[in-house]
Please model this.
Amino acid sequence: MHRPLKRARTAIAALSLITISAIIAACGGGGSGGGGSVADVASTGVTPQVLSGVAATGAPMIGQVSVKDSSSAPKEKTTVTGSDGSFSFDVSDMKAPFMLKATSAVGGTTMYSFADQPGTANIHPLSSVAVARAAEVDDPEDAYQNSDSARHEKIRSGMPAAMAALKTQLKPLLDAFDVDLDDLIKDDFAADQTGLDAVLDNVKVAISGGTLTITNATTGAVLFTASVKDIEHGKFTDDENDMPKRGPRPAAPTGVSATGGDGQVTIDWQPVSDAISYTIYWSTKNIAASDEGAKKIRHVKNPPYVQTGLAAGTTYYYTVRAVNRAGRSRHSAEASATTNGTATTTAATTTTTAASTTTTAGPTTTTAATTTTTAAPTTTTAAPTTTTAAPTTTTAAPTTTTAAPTTTTAAPTTTTAAPTTTTAAPTTTTAAPTTTTAAPTTTTAAPTTTTAAPTTTTAAPTTTTTTTTATTTTTTLAINGAALYGTNCAGCHNPLATTEKRGATAAEISAGIAGVSSMRNSILATNGGIPLTQAQIAAIAAAMQ
Model:
C-alpha cells in the first residue's frame, strides 16, 4: 500500500508546486531555467542549448531541480518538475559540465546527476550513486555543494567507470527486469513502470555514512551493499528469494505483419491485454527471435506503427515484444516486408499564377478610325471655329483589353456653320480586369472649312493611360524533414533509413545540436549561417520516427 499512498502524496504536492510556480512566473521568475521557445529562437536567431531529463524514484519526483555549471563563480538555475518528473533548462549562458540536484516537495528526498554537455541527464537514485562514486565522496550532496570546475572535471573523468561498475554489480537485478540501457543517465528513461523505472519501483536505494544499500522495497531484504567509493567490491545477494517478486510478464504479441510501401513499412499486431507499451525490433537481416544487432523503437503505445524514411527496394525484418511493469515478453514471430523498388519523393510544388501584365512607360496613343461626314450641298464661309470640350471624367467598369487595335465607327455627323458637334458610337473595349479613370480631355478643333463637297474629319489623337494591377497567388512549400536530415545530419550520422538516432524527439535533437560544436558549425555552414528552426527540427524528428 505504501506505493499508492506515496503517489497520492506526490500528486497533492504537485498542486502546491504548480501554484508556487505560477506565482514565481507572475513575479518575473527567480532564476529558473527553461528550454527556450520558438519565440526565443525567432527573436535571437540562435537555437538555445538545452539540458533536460526526467527525475523519478520509481514514481515521478514532484519538486524542483537545480543545475550548477563549471564557471569560476558557478552559476545556478532552478525550475520545477512537470507531473511526469520532466524538467528542462536553457544553459546557453552556462559552462559545461553540469551538476544537477532534484529535491522532492514531500519529505525532502534529494537525488543527483551529472551532464558533461547540454543534452539529456536523467536523475534517479542510481545516478546519485554514480555521482558519489565518480567524485569519490561519501555523500553526493558534498559534490554538489562544493562543486567547481576542478570537481566537475573529476566527476566527468570518473563517470564511465562508475556506471560500468554499477551495471556489473547490479546485473542480476537489471537482468531480472530486462533493463538493457547503455548509459544509466543519458539513455531513454520515463516514469512509466517499465525498464529501469520498474526496477526503482521495486527496490530502495540509500546512501548513508558512505555505504550504499539496495533493498527489496516489499520485504526489506538486502540485495546489494558496498562502500559508495568502492562499488566494484560490493556484495550482491546469492539468495533468489531476496529478489523482488514481479507479476507475470506479458504474453508475446501475435498476428505480427509487415506491409511495405514507398520508403516505409507498416507493422501491425494483435494488442496484448496487460501490456503498457511495446518495443519493435527491426533490422535488414533476420532477427531470429533475438535482439542482437537489431535496432529498437521503444514506448510504442498501440498498433499499428508506421516506420518511415526507409531505403527503396529493401527488405526489413521485425519482431515485437510487449512490456509491462514485470518486464518484457518473448519476441513475437518474425515478419518482413520489402519497400517499393523506386523511391518516390513527393514535395509540395510552388505554383505562382499571375495575370499577364504589359507595362508601357510612355502614354498609349490611339488614333480613331477616320469619320466621313456628308452634308447637304452648302457653301459656307465662316470664321475659324474653336470648340473646347468640357472636361469629362469617366470611371470605367472592369474591362478586358486585348492587344488587337480598336476600331471605332462614328455615327454620321451633320455640320453647319455653327460649331460642329460629334457624337461617337459607344465603344466596347475588352481588357484585363482594371479600373481606369480617364483624365480630363480637352479637344480643340482645328479651323474647319465646310463646302458642299463631303467633309472628311480626322479626330485628334487621343491619349489613354491605363494602370493594371496583377494578382499573384503563391502556395508555400511544406517542410521536408527527410531532406533536412540528409543535408544537416547525414554527414555525422547514418543515412535516414539506418540512422542510429531512430526515434529521437525534437527536444533530443535540439539538445544534440546545442551540445556538439561540430554539429552546430556544420548546420551553420550548410544553412548559410542560419540555424535550424524549431519547425525544421520537428520535421526531422518526424522523419526519424
